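Long-time lurker. I teach an intro course on protein structure, and each term I like to show students one example going from raw sequence to a predicted 3D structure in token notation. This year I'd like something fresh instead of my usual example. Would anyone be willing to generate the tokens for the chain below so I can use it in lecture? Attribution to the forum is fine with me.
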Amino acid sequence: MNDFLATHQLPDNFAETVSQCFLPLAEKITMAMAEHGSTFYVAVNGCQGSGKSTLSAFLGEWFSASGLKVAVLSLDDFYHDRKTRLQLATQISPLLATRGVPGTHNTDLMARTLRTMSTPESIRLPRFNKATDNPYAEREWPEVTGPVDLVIMEGWCWGVTAQSPLQLRYPVNALEAEQDANLIWRNWVNQQITAHYEPLYSLMNYWVMLKAPGFDNVFQWRLEQEQKLSAKIKDSDKSRVMDESGILQFIQFYQRLTEECLNSLPQRCDVVFELDDHRNIYATSGL
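-- Reply from a regular --
Happy to contribute to a lecture. Here you go:
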């Protein structure tokens, strides 16, 4: 546990969270896997900075230690490269140059990767370098040979469903009001959810959510993420690490769908961890 705390730059009280919340979750997943009998897919949703990557990494290590073959995937690792996003920005909306929303991911690769996990084939697991805003070279992607016992898929909007035309009509922030006044970006993203994301949700067998108190928490939590990223990378890559003003602008891209997840996803999840402003779990449902 000490090595895990150090690797993920976690406070000492994380061990208490593990014993009270994450180990009971692992036991629930174990029971569900036993009933399922084949490759088991666990979805983990949480807004930026909520701790979903840490939870996923913990579950991955815990189940691997028990002898299972585990693959941990992140929605973030399926982002299109910058060249592709610039093409989308030219063809559809300038806002699509910024990674984040549905439609900025390579969903063909995502579908192929998820589905291959249950077969005897070998496949490389995509990895994205946020500091350079491009995927790592494929030769650097880890390789796994299936069938995998447990697949953990985490993402900030993983599980979000399309909104109604009435919901899309009204901007939720200045970015939408000023840079998407014609609703082209919003409508296109919504169409991507329906066509390419919702069909993949049916692969998931178990849903977990780390639920923030509200969208207001995202700025502080994202700032902490960027500070951790900056501490890890070499100086030549730091130019793409965001400062506070950059984060304030960036999170507006995420606001609509983050709020949609907070409002609609909990009732569709098997387990929900309620977070306070400091990301401590103060309530749990489903365990």
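Some talking points for your students: The chain is about 45% helix and 15% strand. The mean pLDDT is 92.
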